[in-house]
Amino acid sequence: MTSTKTDIGETLRPRRERTRSAVLPENFLMKFGSPRARPRLVQAYDPKTGWSTDRKKAPLTVDLLSELRSAGITLVEAKWRSHRRQINLSTLDFWNQV
């Protein structure tokens, strides 16, 4: 991460590099209205216990979705800006593509 300076001498916040675990397929991100969307988890549904907000505001990544899916979570609700979507983890088809 490198910080940059503006012409008036203010230092801008360093830009975070996106890791492979943070890269979601563009067709998935288009559900939130933009290929540059960075959706965050709102709540997750476990059929045994119901809705949970334990990881509220965690950024959605392939690793997080895979971890939730293996823990028995079947549905997540995510939000980016004004777009709020429910995503069924059992029907996602990009697990082997990323």
Describe this structure in words.
The chain has helices at 26-29, 62-70; strands at residues 40-46, 50-52, 75-80, 83-88. The chain has a 4-stranded antiparallel beta sheet with strand order 2-1-3-4, with no helix packed on it. The relative contact order is 0.20. The longest helix has 9 residues, at 62-70. The chain is α+β, with helices and mostly antiparallel strands and 98 residues long. Strand 1 (40-46) and strand 2 form a beta hairpin.
Strand order of the largest sheet: 2-1-3-4
How many strands appear in the DSSP assignment?
4
Approximate strand percentage:
15-25%
Principal-axis shape:
globular
- Rounded to an integer in angstroms, the radius of gyration calculated over CA atoms is 16 Å
Give the assembly state of these chains: single chain
What layout of secondary structure does this protein have?
Blueprint: H1 26-29, E1 40-46, E2 50-52, H2 62-70, E3 75-80, E4 83-88
Antiparallel strand pairs: 1-2, 1-3, 3-4
